[in-house]
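Entry
Fold in token form

___
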Amino acid sequence: MKDLMEYIAKSLVEHPEDVQIHESGSGDRVRLELKVNAADMGRVIGKSGRVANAIRALLRVAAEQQGKQVTLDVLEP
């Protein structure tokens, strides 16, 4: 999960070195926290949250294949 999120985030932003992902959770529930450079927040969230929702959809599909549930939180820098 974390690797997929890292790949997606680094592909979207202009400052890939500032991408930080923290994975937590236990059992079949995974929580991902994404931090990016302040200048890249718009790229990750998108207009009306469309990009963030698309990322969440991709993560949900990948998690279901592993029998897990995933939550993505985009944190303020």
Remarks:
- The beta strands are 20-24, 29-35, 69-75.
